[in-house]
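ingest -> validate -> predict -> emit
validate: passed (alphabet ok, no gaps, 139 aa)
predict: started
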Amino acid sequence: MYVELEIPQQDLEIILPPRNLNCNGVESWVRIVHIPTGISAISNQERSLWQNRERALAVLTSKLFAIMQRQGVQQLADIQGEILKTVLNQPIREYQLASDSANQGKVLDLRTGIETTAVAEVLDGKIDSFIKAGVLLKN
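emit:
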């Protein structure tokens, strides 16, 4: 799905790779940052800077459009960037790893308050209890 959203050029920061970084090849990645919200997109899949710039801009546009839909706003300028920055910078879980076998570590999900002592399982990706608690919290 292609999204038509006009982003003012002064709201964009385009970051290119430094010149002469790699003597064996050419770096062609591009990172674009939407300054008011701090949302960024990077592309390094294409062979040229121009194509990567277009791809990164398309990804950034779709991210901003999704945020606009989530916040229920009609204009790009109405996005509440400060709320976004605080939500994106908040930690999700707190890990306390045990230093010896006498002490058990624990993992605390800061959004739901769920706590578990199965640290190894959580680090292996078994976070179903946190996901279920998050879904129940939203409902």
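Strands lie at 12-15, 30-34, 39-43, 93-96, 106-109, 115-116.
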